[in-house]
Amino acid sequence: MAGVTLILLGATGYATADVLDVAPGILTRDGATVAPPTPTGSATASPAWAALPSPAPSPTSASPSPSATVPPPSGAALAKALGAIVKDPWLGPSVGVSVRDGETGEELYAVSPSAARAPASTLKVLSAFAVTSHLDLDARMTTKVVTGATPSEVVLVAGGDTLLGTGASDPTTVEGHAGVATLADEVARSLDERGAGAVTLRVDATYAAGPRYPATWKKEDIAAGFTQSVSMLDLVSQRAGGGRAAPPVPEAGVAAALAKALTARGHATTVAPLSGHGTPAPAGATELGAVESATYAEHLGFALQHSDNALTENLVRQAMVAAGASPAAPLGPPQFVVKTLADAGVPTTGLRLLDTSGLSPGQTATATVMADVLALATSGKDDDFLRAVASLPVAGLNGSLSDRYRGKETKAVAGIPRAKTGTLKGISSLAGTTVDADGHVLVFAVLADRVPASSGTLGARAALDRFVTALTLCGCH
């Protein structure tokens, strides 16, 4: 288990804040105002903190667990350490908790864990499990251009990558790993070899196609730039963020960028209008050029670090296709997540999913299902899912936890817990892993869905961070 411990401590991913989970509260406890509240949150760059703790590197081989001779925390001791925090008024009257032994999955401490509560973005943990269960995490997405129905037609075929750059492909990054300029270079060379001149470019975005937006997403959140349409082809430069809405048909923007690049390379290109998701490229079409994305593991890590709603929905749809299912039905993706959990033996009682990202109101999950799933990773039962859990934000270091665990009450554990955050109006949650003072890997899930308006999100966040700090510092055997 030492290997797992170090993997869970290792820092990976991207230092930007969670699109939903930096939503500010209305007031602090003493009534001081904070940043202006927003419906769901806004993307914020990570602060340049000095003297960040250095996470342990991922090991090349496992060694005996430091906790092998020490019993796991006792329920009574955990109740003493955590009970008062669970009752903190800032969390409100509806709190569900489950703390597990990460090695065995045994529940060590719980408070109403089986009650159905709104999970917000912690729901992405469940979706990540579905993604890792059905996709090859080391595989990549291919965006290509092939010949069309006539010699003067070419077809841009979507392959799932929504993090395309406009410039040359950059193999050192996730965003822009595949670039439109590189694709244009390859296509232009192929057209030159064929003696082609001007061309018409059309789009085939039929792969893993489904509704542009889950029907239960709020239109105002989309308009405010808190999320964007779920597509299989997009540019990083078009993505929503910072109050900027994304284009409703991102494939058109990719086609326009490619057409401009091809024209600059001597092949005047006209873009054919896109209707719906377009039509499939001709059977047996010849490939003229292609670029590959970063791996699925890296894209999933990006989605978890950024709490990216559209990318999470994208990956679940691709997982459905890999499993032989169609993502076309409006509730197909959330039903697929529930089925994947059930097939793995995870109890699904209390799950009511309307999307796979946690943005829709009216969804419920339980602390039990969150902890059950996370324990599959830490107990060594699912190495692929462990890779996803290892990419969760790290306390005080990156993602949606980059600006947390900085105060005097919590900074002692910065760099140790990693967790998926969840924040919507009146909802605050945290689900992840930590390592206690005795070296035990622990799993935790805390869902609070009646956070008082008087304390706001920041009050609930502070209480959750104190909970995880107490759990991490506890030598409660």
Describe this structure in words.
Keywords: Carboxypeptidase, Hydrolase, Protease, Signal. This protein has 477 residues and is an alpha+beta fold. The chain folds into two domains: 2-119 and 364-473, Beta-lactamase; 140-295, no CATH class. It is built from twelve helices and ten strands. The chain has helices spanning 2-9, 75-86, 123-134, 180-194, 219-223, 250-264, 296-306, 309-322, 332-343, 367-378, 383-389, 456-473; strands at residues 95-101, 107-111, 140-147, 153-157, 199-204, 269-271, 287-295, 418-424, 427-435, 441-448. It has a five-stranded antiparallel β-sheet with strand order 2-1-10-9-8, sandwiched between helices. It has a five-stranded mixed β-sheet with strand order 6-5-4-3-7. It starts with a helix and ends with a helix. Residues 5-64 have low confidence and may be disordered.
Q: From the 3D coordinates, which CATH architecture of the largest domain would you assign?
A: 3-Layer(aba) Sandwich
Largest sheet: 5 strands, antiparallel
Gyration radius, rounded: 23 Å
* Proportion of residues in helical segments: 25-40%
CATH class of the largest domain: Alpha Beta
Strand element count: 10
Q: Using the coordinates shown, work out and report the CATH topology of the largest domain.
A: Beta-lactamase
Question: Quick one: overall form?
Answer: elongated
Query: Low-confidence spans: pLDDT under 50, at least 5 residues?
Result: 5-64
**Class from helix and strand fractions:** alpha+beta
